[in-house]
Amino acid sequence: MKNVSHLNVDRFEPKNAIRNMPQLTRFIAEYESAPQWEIDTKALPTALQAYRRKCRAFADKYIRPYALALDAQKDKTAEEEILVRAGKEGFLSDMLPWPLGSQPASVALEPLHWVQSLKMEEFCAACGGIGLLLGAHGLGMAPFILSGDLRMVFKYVLPINRENSAGVPHIAAFAITEPAAGSDVEETEGARVYTPGTTAKRTSGGWILNGRKVFISGGDIARTVTVFAAIEKEGVDSWTCFAVPKETVGFSVGRNELKMGQRASSATELIFEDAFVSDANVVGGVRGGWSLCRTVLNYSRIPVAAIALGIARGAFEAAIEFASKQKLGGQTLNQYQEVQLSLARMYTLTTAMRSTVWNLAAHWTQRQSHASAAKVFCSDTAMEVANLAMELMGNHGLFTHNLAEKAFRDARLTQIYEGTNQINLLGIIEDQYEDFFK
Predict the structure, then answer these.
(1) What superfamily does domain 291-436 belong to in CATH?
(2) The pLDDT of residue 38 is above 70
(3) CATH number of the domain at 173-287, please?
(4) What backbone phi and psi angles, to 5 degrees, belong to 174?
């Protein structure tokens, strides 16, 4: 490695050099040293600045200390504590403003997916698994809110939010994936040819659900699940969303998978054996599930991109800490140019990810192509950042349980859920078909 000799700071340091420029030039070019996180935060609307600071404070106090323990499946009592604290501080009820939720009125003036993206970056920079544990609840609640049915808001969203705010965790889960179909049914062509495995049969006063859902985030702890099932003997175009309480007879929780990453959040099998769901629990109308699912995914893929951003930032921060402490040849690694180049590359990639997420999230209407592009770019880039962090740490990254190697495992999942990146690329083609094939 090449040692970097320090230049005369007073003469060559860029910020000092700018101070020698004429006053008018300094007005537009001069800037003071500040942590990048502060610079980025001050660029946000005022309400979102406060919200981002609140998210970071929570992550530092309640998530980061438990990241490695919950990843190793130890100290599971911490999970309950985190859920209770997140509920009391409003992070499990901040999809709607008061009095329906805990979101401040000023924050509610900004797009919901931007608000949730800020939360996901901060939480997942501390731990991708705990971030998903908390964020997947919002996905489970999304069908109630995005259905536009106020009846569902008052029947489910309001009481769930009240329980969470009181420190009594009530987690919701979102269930579409089946043993024979995952990302393929999140794309039009795949959905068109798939024979659904979870079905709903009409009966007096409601529906009988049969089938299995798999890899459901938070499915083991969810007290309410929004389940997508096809009408019996019909295709995915008949998908209907049902709100299924945990105590429903015929509904049971199967196994939890041994996951590669984001282990603090379970991936659970849900089983439906003649489970009765009343007509009052239909969300978004009979046969309205396909359009509702697509709407939810267009909303949720920007926050998933932010999950990847947070995981990448966590890997970057772990690499900085390691390089500033680990010594080689009598000096810390960050004094060597090869390491500096690697850190600069990680900075460049995470900055590009954040710019993508914040720019696209600032739009109230979320286009399918934008949401998919952000998800693909950020999840692929998160893998690159995590890989750079692992390379920088060498054997320390490979042979110890640490935040960088955890981020490497955590990042891989973001390329898979919410539709694999290949399916999302097809979603871009579908949404931009007229532009691409003029």
Answers:
(1) Butyryl-CoA Dehydrogenase, subunit A, domain 3 (1.20.140.10)
(2) yes
(3) 2.40.110.10
(4) -115, 120
